[in-house]
Amino acid sequence: MRLDVTENDRAYTVKAEMPGVKKENINVEIEGNDVTITAEVKREWEKKDDDKLLRSERYYGAVYRSFVLPVELDEASSEAKYEGGVLQLTLKKKPQVAGRKLTVQ
After folding, report:
1. Tell me: the pLDDT tens digits for 20-30?
2. DSSP per residue over 42-78, as a string?
């Protein structure tokens, strides 16, 4: 699975090439700043009585990709769209919380 990842002030955009995958077979999980994409490509060829498979070069099976981004993500406001064999994720960044200074007593 090949990816492009871009960033702006509010979010990361991930585009993943996933040709031949149905959107119901795609799973995206976000935990903190970890992103995991899994998908399954299923064989749709049915053997008929007289058919004999001469060559099969297409990929069938499960694909998996996991990566870590520098900032924690807001999974509730993030979005996923799949069109034309490309999965596009818009991963919203969680607002940075300023550190708190402790007074030494």
Report:
1. 889 999 999 99
2. PP-----TT-------S--EEEEEEEE-SS-B-TTT-
